[in-house]
């Protein structure tokens, strides 16, 4: 098994690898003290300010779409080029942060569709009924 690159180890620290690769690397780190030492050195270098442009780019997730863009992607209202970039970012790059955000948006949309407007109105009315009564 080949040694992971410094970029892979830094991505591991940032939780930026696909889940399967993260798990495999974590298992390997538990038994390989040399690799664990190398990871610690990389963390120290990163934390003392020896940043690269790539590191800054990844840390601030400059290539990630905004949550609003992800929502528009779900509603299929983006222009084709922007939608294609988001598909590439989610599916091919495998950005776990954007995948999680997209899944959260899907769940929220599903929950909202399950509760009809009539039930929501009834809930609002029930919570405000006590405020409408006059106290004697």
Using brief descriptors, characterize the structure shown:
136 residues, mainly alpha, elongated
| N-to-C series of helices and strands | HHHHHHHH
Secondary structural class: mainly alpha
Quick one: overall form? Answer: elongated
Number of helices: 8
Beta fraction of the residues? under 5%
User: Can you give the helix content as a percent range?
Assistant: over 70%
- Total discrete domains: 2
Estimated radius of gyration = 23 Å
* Overall mean confidence score, pLDDT: 84
Rounded to the nearest angstrom, the distance between the terminal CA atoms is 80 Å
Which sheet architecture does the biggest sheet show? none
Mind sketching the topology for me?
Elements: H1 6-13, H2 19-31, H3 33-47, H4 53-59, H5 67-74, H6 80-93, H7 96-114, H8 117-132
What can you tell me about this protein's structure?
The protein is built from 8 helices and no strands. The protein has helices spanning 6-13, 19-31, 33-47, 53-59, 67-74, 80-93, 96-114, 117-132. Helix content is 74%, strand content 0%. 9% of the residues are buried. It is elongated. Helix 5 (67-74) packs across helix 7 (96-114). The model has no long low-confidence stretch (mean pLDDT 84). The chain has 2 domains: 1-62, no CATH class; 63-129. It has 136 residues and is mostly helical.
